[in-house]
Design a protein that fits this description.
This protein is mostly helical. The chain is built from 6 helices and no strands. It is elongated and about 50 Å long. GO terms for molecular function: pectinesterase inhibitor activity.
Length: 166
Amino acid sequence: MSLFIIHSSADENLIKNICIQTSDYQYCTNLYFSDNRSYRVGVQGLALIAIQATINKAQDTIYSRFPELSKKITDLVGKQRLGVCKTDYTNSENNFNGAFQSTSKSDYWKAIDWIRKGANDVIDCQDIYKRENPIADSPISDVNNEIALKLSGIILACIDNLLRRS
């Protein structure tokens, strides 16, 4: 016996309406359409799914990417920058946990503050490579952009919708 999950067009329309408000529609729809919970929740649930994806991305970076990079980076400046980034990511993870709690409690203005702080932490990790010589590209620019721009933008689109409804 096979189990099929039937998605209503209203659920897909909700996701599409949120995603059209973001900077990367395809990324947003991929995030939600690949998570079956997305079809069973409203806008608040979609915000929580995106926040959890952000926390997971930060944790993966802390516990997988940074250890890999610390083995490869041997120069003192590179190690110092990586240390700053690890601290930034730990702070970002904590801030997105705060956003999750605030969103769960429908305290959306507080959630916005947490999201701003979490995104700014990741932006600091990106910027540390441009502040002083030698100027370099961050070895985790891809993740920095994913968290600070794409995921944060999705979360804020959801919260904006929730605020307009209240």
